[in-house]
Amino acid sequence: MKKDVILQSHDRSKAYGIHTQQTFSSKILKEEGLEKVLQENRELIALSEPIINNLYNFVKGSGFFGILTDVQGCILNIMGDENVLEVAFELDMVPGAYMSEEHIGTNAMGTALWEKKPVQISGEEHFVKVYHRWTCSAAPIQDPKGNIIGTLNLTGYSNLVHAHTLGMVVAAVQSIELALKHQQAKDKLLWSRQYAGTIIDSIPKGILTLSPRGYIKSINRKGQKIIGASQDALIGVPAKEFFVDWPKVKSAFSHQRYPLKSRTYIQHHHKSLEIDLELHPIFDARENRNGMICIFTEVPRVSQLDQSKPHHKMYTFDKIIGRNKKFLNTLEYAKQIANSPSTVLISGESGTGKEVFAQSLHRASDRQDQPFIPLNCGAIPKDLIESELFGYEEGAFTGAKKGGNKGKFELAHRGSLFLDEIGEMPLFMQTNLLRVLEDREFYRIGGSKKIPVDVRIIAATNKDLREEVEKGNFRKDLYYRINVLPLSLAPLRERKDDIPLFIDYFMTTKSLKLQKEPFTLSKDQLEEMLHYHWPGNIRELENMVEQLVNAQSTAPYAQENSGISPGFEVAKEEPSSAANPSPPVKPLEIVEKDHILQALNYFNHNITAAAKALGLGRNTLYRKMDKYGISR
């Protein structure tokens, strides 16, 4: 039976034009195409990752690696021992490579998709000779409706072939399919809750629920508005601290099965309100009291104490500015992946808002109430970054703090760890980071106790990490490990239609901050800003507006001083002529070099001041100076 499957697969491989000497898949997606496929399969990737982790931990050190593909055979995720992954990567078995028979001939993933059943292919059963070294066991993954949506595969050297390997893969696939069913049920339940929540939020009265022990469990929008506090601030507050005469109300209500109406007072922090209260008991299936629903309205002309609780809030998606179509697509994708536990890699030039997106991802996830811990990998000296990430025990080195110190991983436990400028991380630390991502545990420096950790990694870079991998500056296996959910932010020069929005926003906020009157830019000023290339992106635009607000507090004065910034110029077009056929504008690199030189001259070569004015980090400015041969 299996022999027939192999022979038929070989016949199909020949018909597809696959050659036995072929080394690589004939279809490997580039970054943009891969990002689209990863987005389409984000749920499968997220739900299967912990199961693949468990499978890998079971075979770890045995020379096997696991592969997840979509229904077309495109590799979505790959995980395994470093030594065997290096061999796989040399054969371009990487995310984006298609393992269908049509592109690489007979192999377990492609043949399992064709046969619609689990398959084990070993040694010379593979069609291409370069795969004769492998034994592969794959099984198709079905969604709750029975549609095949991908495959899970376990590959090792052919001398390791064992029938039980296929059984392990089948068991893992069953776990993934069960997770998909649970997710579907969870989505339906969530929809039901949202449906009910929408109805409750539309009621023009305050509604809150109390647990059997008398703690606030939920409150609708109208209730939050009446009280002047968010649901997060109110959940868990005891009723006895919330209702002024709660013992009296509770006593009157305790033996009744029907609603009780009462006029009472509620208090929260410095706010006190008189309300009309209606209490309804909640009963479980055995007719036992299981809490209560409180419906309330504010009594007109209440006596109310003023309250103000200024506090720093993290960025959220609803605070992000933009109307550019490409940017809005990126924003929508970010919202969709926010609740995934998978690693996100945010790429974009300096000043494009990578940390804003990182914070928003965290705030939109189910980890929002847990820590968000940032670490700028480019700002920490190489000899300190290990202790920053992993912490240290007392006496680990000279000057170590008494009692030791927690690292960023420990501080971010159950939350999110934001690794900014990850491309600057030293190679030795990349190895350590990869190990923690795979094992989910680590040792403090000088420690002997393993510390388990549950963090969601959000990484960011302004470098092309693929290029860094080719240069040997960044580990290929770490790149694929962190690039599960890639998120690319466009530079400001590709979002010209958003510039007026940013100007209005920064003009308002900077005027308030500096206690100056906001003004409208002249037409010439706005034109200059729209035609400027903004190497420092949004951060540079923010600094530019702040400079204008500092220097100009009235509209007439602003009209007279239309230059974008002291000492800074925009490369303007010159009229072309037959005698002068040169391009009307300078090449971008020349403009950028001139712009950097102007900034350095203006600030007397003060790197910190120039970098801030340009909207760049110091390290980024140094790299650009080296690139253009500008002396330090």
Automatic annotation (TrEMBL):
Domain of life, source organism: Bacteria
Protein name as it appears in the record: GAF domain-containing protein
Organism this protein belongs to: Isachenkonia alkalipeptolytica
Domain PAS residue range list: 192-236
Matching PANTHER family: C4-DICARBOXYLATE TRANSPORT TRANSCRIPTIONAL REGULATORY PROTEIN DCTD, TRANSCRIPTIONAL REGULATORY PROTEIN
UniProt keyword annotations, A-Z: ATP-binding, DNA-binding, Nucleotide-binding, Transcription, Transcription regulation
Segments of this protein annotated with the region Disordered: 558-585
The keyword Zinc belongs to this UniProt entry's keyword annotation: no
Phylogenetic lineage: Bacteria, Bacillati, Bacillota, Clostridia, Eubacteriales
Sequence ranges assigned to domain Sigma-54 factor interaction in this UniProt record: 320-550
GO molecular function: ATP binding; sequence-specific DNA binding
